Amino acid sequence: MSHVRYLLMVLLTIASAIVEATEFQLNDRCPPGFELTPANACELRTLYQFYRSNQNRGVGGTRTGLPPHRDGFSPQQIDLGRFLFFDPALSGDGSTSCASCHHPDKGFADGRDLSVGVAGRKTDRSAPTLWNSAFLDRFFWDARAETLEEQAQGPLYAKAEMDNTPENLLTTLKSNRAYVDLFRQAFPSQAELTLDQIYVALTAFQTSLVSLNSRYDQYAHGNHDALNEEEIAGMNVFRSFVARCSECHTPPLFTNNQIAVIGTPEPKGMPLDIGAEKTFNAARLKGGFKVPTLRNIDLTAPYMHSGVFKNLRDATEFYTKGRGHAVPEGVNMQLHWHIWEPDLTDRELDLIVTFMKTLTDETFKPRTPALVPSGLTPISHTATASQIAHTGE
Predict the structure, then answer these.
(1) Can you list the pairs that 376-380 forms with residues at least 24 positions away whose Cβ atoms lie under 8 Å?
(2) What is the dihedral of CA 82, 84, 87, 91, to 10 degrees?
(3) Do domains 3-210+370-391 and 215-359 have the same CATH topology?
(4) Helix, strand, or coil here: 204?
(5) Is the pLDDT at 215 greater than 80, yes or no?
(6) Which residues are CB-neighbours of 337 under 8 A, at least 6 positions away?
(7) What are the b/e assignments for 334-351, b being 16+ CB within 10 Å?
(8) Who contacts 117 (Cβ-Cβ below 8 Å, separation ≥6)?
(9) How far is CA 222 from CA 194, 219, 294, in A?
(10) In sequence order, which ranges of the chain are alpha helices (DSSP H)?
């Protein structure tokens, strides 16, 4: 047995002993921004609830209402989801948590062009942010999931991501005394721990990730000192009928929740990703992907579904280089009508980037647990036994 493998076993044994001596108790209060109802449900409260969508003032008006959203989970379900989200025990080899690809300090993305799963396996796409997931009605870049519960099952069981199986996941959690107790706290009317409870808890936590208090929001709500002159100028370019950014990245979510074919290039050496064409079996959606939110966009580089653009300036410049300029020769794409040739100046591009940086808001960033019930390290990228065997170390 190698020294690394032996040390790993010792650390896991110590961690298990610490967990055994720890009494986990789920939070009985809602996360910030939510109000606890008499029915023990957390309901979102935001100033945008006072606005209606028909009160738009021009393209991308600041007093625009939010679309429908999901809330109403109990504080206990949200907190259980938080433990699960950060626990590598949900992966097949105990190496990778949800937070490994959706790191709270990286805008709930991972800072990579393509995400990396268990045993160092690269995925085909970048990790999208999870901020404001409660307002989305489709999930994954190619919109193949209709609910967060369905979305959760993708990474959990994908070989290139967490590489688990439903049977092993259930066995892992049921064999953990702390988790059995936590699930009883979160689902008191249900006698046995189930897969559906796991998906609901993860959903509950993700719907609590709300980012609506950036400096832009403060400006939208009437504090016109929240943005400086350059940022306001950038907002005006962003909203203009020339740049047309806000027609797809529509405030206040800065996404219209739609699929768009824009013809972004693939990284060198990668084949064309047909995106939503596969999801909907529709040739007109070849190369189509969900319009991502621009919330916390300054924290989530690199950009696009494949992370092909390393910074915001390059990603913004793509839109003014000419309609279809990056579409491979011989490929027929039905580009979105908003993709045209606005011929923006360098100054205008810089202003748009300046404005997008005002959308950063981590006011309600959740706390990473110091300890999770498995005893493993939250958001750990440390090699586990299976990874050591895989790499031959």
Answers:
(1) 376/12, 376/15, 376/87, 376/88, 376/89, 376/94, 377/88, 378/86, 378/87, 378/88, 378/97, 378/99, 379/86, 379/97, 379/99, 379/100, 379/103, 380/88, 380/95, 380/97, 380/100
(2) -140
(3) yes
(4) helix
(5) yes
(6) none
(7) ebbeebeebebeeebbbb
(8) 91, 96, 101, 123, 155, 158, 159, 160, 161, 162, 163
(9) 47, 5, 21
(10) 3-20, 75-86, 98-101, 148-157, 166-174, 177-186, 195-207, 215-220, 229-239, 276-280, 312-317, 346-356, 385-391
Residue type, 69: H
Q: Are 30 and 40 in contact (CB under 8 A)?
A: no
Does domain 215-359 correspond to CATH entry 3.40.980.10? no
Q: First and final CA of the chain: distance in angstroms?
A: 11
Instruction: For residue range 295-310, list pLDDT tens digits in order.
Output: 999 999 999 999 999 9
- Which homologous superfamily does the CATH classification assign to the domain defined by 3-210+370-391? Cytochrome c-like domain (1.10.760.10)
For the chain, give every domain's residue range: 3-210+370-391, 215-359
Assign 218 to helix, strand or coil. helix
- What is the token pair recorded at 255? 């996404």
Q: What is the predicted pLDDT for the residue at 391? A: 30
Q: Please give the Cα distance from 163 to 116 (Å, whole number).
A: 12
Q: Per-residue pLDDT tens for 107-119?
A: 999 999 999 999 9
- Cα-based angle 295, 238, 248 (whole degrees, multiple of 5): 65
| Separation between Cα atoms, residue 3 and residue 254, nearest integer Å | 50
Give the number of other CB atoms < 10 A from CB of residue 38.
Answer: 5
Cα 122-127-130 angle, rounded to 5 deg: 155
Which DSSP category does 201 fall into? Answer: H
Burial of 158 (0-12, 13-18, 19+ CB in 10 A): middle
